[in-house]
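[Meeting: bench + compute handoff]

Bench side (C.D.) handed over the final construct sequence. Compute side (W.E.) agreed to return the predicted structure before the next meeting so the bench team could plan truncations. Sequence as handed over:
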Amino acid sequence: MTGHLRIVGTTRGDRLHAVAAHTRQALVVRCHQRLRGPYTGVDTILTTVLPEAASRWPELVEEHRVALLYGMPELAQLIGPAPRTLADDAPYEERTRFFGAGWIRCMSQGIVTFLLEHVRRAHDTDAFEIVFEEAHAAEATTQELIALLLRRADPRLLRVVVSATAGKLSDELDGALAEVDVVAAPRSEGPSVADRSVLDWARVYVDSDCTDDDPCALAGYRQTDPPTRALLHDRRGDALAETATWGVRMGSVALHREHGSDPGGAGRAALLEAQRHAVATGFSAAVVDLGLRGRKVTDPLLHEHDYWEFTREAAAACIPVGRLEQSMELYQGLLRRFTDPKIHMMTSYAIAMLHTRFLRPRDHELAVQWQHNAVAIAGILPDPAERLTYSVFHDNGLALVEMHRGNLGRALGLVESCIGRLDEKLDEGQWALHRSQLLYNRARLLVALGRPDEAHADYSQLVDMDPYYTDYLSERARISRDRGDFEAALADYDRAVRLAPPFPELHYNRGTARVHVGDVAGALADFTLVLEMEPGDLDTRVARAELLLEAGDLDAAESDIGTGLRLHPGEVQLLCLQGTLLLQRERFDDALEALDQVLAKDPHYPAALINRAVVHFRQAKPEMAVADLSTALEAVGEDPDILLNRGIAHLAAGRPDLALGDFDLAIVLPDADTDEIREQRRLCTAAGAR
């Protein structure tokens, strides 16, 4: 059996017996989130393979350093540290840059890319096998990575075995496993021999970090009195804390403190520390989990700030994982529970952001009401330092809402006022991260206001301030592209690719820039990487199919278009490309059917009109070609190529006077094919003379 595999069994012991029977020398990693939180199991894999990779292919490790270390900083002991950004070095209370689920997904894609390349280089004869045991209990980030690895790995090189109970996994992981062979692990002969006391079994359960699925262990734990159970958790937590990595602190240490003898003290502190790390890293699902657990052990009267922090961070993290209603409920609960002005100020801001950025339909007018509340409270805070920083923060939030309302000048004025106030009152190094965010917002507004040179200067300053945060390079590249300076754009894209995990958008943008400079091979490489990572990326699928079509590789283009239509049925861009391809294959009736489908959805789709006009012309129906080209001109305005083609169609229909009018109009337009137009005018004149 050489394909990926799913092993289903009730207990870990049963599954491991099946693993032994269906693998050779597999690396078995435990993924239970109670052990080390996000990336549990992934850290084990990397600890195993990184020493060889660093020794034999240091350039491979260097290429993926950021992704490899991002959620597992303890791996720096093996390969050295990652480069630091302003966000990494900012104090927690000054952090105003947070990362969503897409950021972590890119890190996971980087890890997967590294593993695939490492295995390709190290491949001997047998596939490298990885068994993800307890996948059903893995944290969401780990399940996502397993799904990505399953989809991207060639089982002849890297065979993935998912070992879990029969319960539902994440939607993406279940989807990745849909075509994978399933092995049911045989049940063991019977339960464990109960040769230990109830307390001993409870100790076994706690010492497993509450992951042991032996019925005797769980029964012993449940039958032990709560105070004794709490002491067992204390002892285990103390033992782990001595050498705990961030993963252990997020997973088992927080768990044991939460269920120990002081849940409202040590438990609250451990969960808060774990949640803050998850917030800083962008582990959104973990932030929600830790926050909801933290609320349960926190007395909102005695520890108002901690309860608020648990709640607000959980509410914010609900957004990237798609739980918007829960986010709003948590925020509204804070407003009902507390009267503290700062809590109302920050919660008003959060609700404003929900309305202006995330809820559908967006309601910018309601957002501005909530944000005005935040601005008003910030302006009357008694402490001058807090009044300054919070007023700036909330004026910046108001600027975002005003930008969404279309008041770009008002938004720019607010941001520039914020920058000026901080520059006047603070030393250069204070609130450096937030000041960079203000500069970033100013640059974005300058672009929107048609002032690209000033925006370019701001982005250049940001690159100097925070050279390892690659968004600034990408934004500067966008301005260079708009100026027509593709050399500068590609220099920024190339630098960003070297520094960043494999962001699909970054590679897509570099690919489209490479198209402009004629680097077809480079563009195809970028598009292919994006589609390997994210097969459903429509823009990249269309871009690669177009490029293949232009290059004359009709078979590869047809494959891309077919895959795209399976993933996006009825999508007009793909249908139009299908029609264009069929036209090139001279299958005119099939091309017409595809293009008709496009125009039934969008009667003014220019490319479909132009290509259908060609089909009509090739089928000796010049009048219908003229009609389509006339509609295309209405959609795009005066275009020399469309006018040229309509003139040719007019001429074929026996209307040389109308053809001549189109040729005369086309020849004076920029980028006109003047030689061809003159030749058609000659033919037109000759036809008129007859």
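W.E. noted at the follow-up: Residues 101-122 form the longest helix (22 residues). C.D. will use this when planning the next construct.
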